[in-house]
Amino acid sequence: MTTPPEGFRIWMLGGWYGITNYILRTRAMVPVEHVRSIDIDPECQHIADRVNKLWEWQEWQFKAQTADVNKLVYDQQAPHIVINSSVEHIESEQWYKNIPQGTLVVLQANDQVHDDHVWICTSPKDLLERFGVTECLYEGSMEFNYPTGNWSRHMIIAIK
What we know:
160 residues, Rossmann fold
């Protein structure tokens, strides 16, 4: 994928408190035009905007919003990259179907048993099979071991 001269437009689905934007900006490894953080929980918007106030003030380089990711419309300002680190929380797959073909997607899910999880992802292969991507660029897993429980987090980076 060629880097756009103005940087990437990134949409974070299930963006929670906008920490992904903060990490992208402070590490400065990826050129960013703007980031939109979309979460269905209205409590997240205010916090995400406060965490990322520096970029919000700079021509709306960051903005959080409360919305159902299954109802997003991808228009001429569609993102170059869609990140969903909350795949196991979203029942419908409409959010994925709405993403334009050829878009770079970063998908994460885990195998933790939790009341909020509607799907248990056992491996990166589960993500690849469930979402059927055009080209997989990366797949990997990370183990987490805490006193309260152990689980694996799985990720793919792919072209839809």
